[in-house]
Amino acid sequence: MVMAATLLLVACGQVVDSAAPGPDTGPLTIRLGYFPNLTHAPALVGLKKGLFATALGPDVTLETHAFNAGGDAVTAILSSSIDVTFVGPNPTTNAFAQSHGQAIRVIAGSTSGGAQLVVRPGISSIAALKGKKIADPQLGGTQDVALRWFLQNHGFKTDTAGGGDVSILPQDNAQTLTAFKQGKIDGAWVPEPWASRLVIEGNGAVLVDERDLWPQGKFDTTNLIARTSFLRAHPKRVKALLDGLYESISYLSSNPTEAQKVSNDALGDLTGRKLAAGVVSAAWPHMTFTVDPLADTLKASADHAHAVGLLGAVDLRGLYDLTLLDQVLAAHNLPAVSGS
Questions:
Q1: Long-range contacts: 78-82, Cβ < 8 Å, 24+?
Q2: What is the pLDDT of residue 3?
């Protein structure tokens, strides 16, 4: 696996993309981003079991890049350092907005659910969060927006400097786990497996399961985005990648017990250490895997980011290009999904 290297910053906020359309045949390298989280299980399983590689064929090489949080993945895709990435809804919206609607398109969904607010023992109510320190993965990221929106709706004031009624501390997930165990923070709004690790390894308790905040418990946690120029230049290969994603999600849905082991093995390969016994099985029921990008919930998340001051007004028309995904679904006699 090729880890994320130093990324070029985009001067003056403008996206520079040197990819030019060409014939969609012959050898090709696809640079694929994803995170070492269970909410990225479709990526973990698709890579570990070779489902992407089989669908893409021998002429395509997958170069993988692992990121800790969505902002890093967005920087990479906007600087053309990667071609396709699994990422959450708020970084997706940020990438679209920063590039004035040009640089990226959502091409599929991946995961719904799998995010929770876990707190230390003794905090048993939302009111008790006042004056506490709560962590999340990254300022402006998916869980950061969800946490700030939740707190705002319950009358708490926050700011990006860690002040206010509740102090929000964006930081690396591994740092959050250590800080929670040491009593340096009071809780965290994090994706799986980190939520379950805080419960099992840190003796925490779930105060909020984000599924309870959304209609039917469904919300976009992870989707798949592509550079627009790459999508236009290589539709055949992108469709093949989506074939692999469909197979990965089908496997996850049909073989949950085995899929948990495969996902944990993949995490072990990626990070050098598998998850502790019971963490994966505890986290698994909190997630649903689907190619449906749940577009309405991404747009709601964008509204939430705007409401808490982390996103300006943005027109999301054109964000979704699900043409190739709908072709994959049609081949399996399944209905098309909507990006509107």
A1: 78/10, 78/15, 78/103, 78/104, 79/7, 79/8, 79/9, 79/10, 79/16, 80/16, 80/17, 80/18, 80/19, 80/227, 81/4, 81/5, 81/7, 81/8, 81/31, 82/31, 82/32, 82/33, 82/227
A2: 34
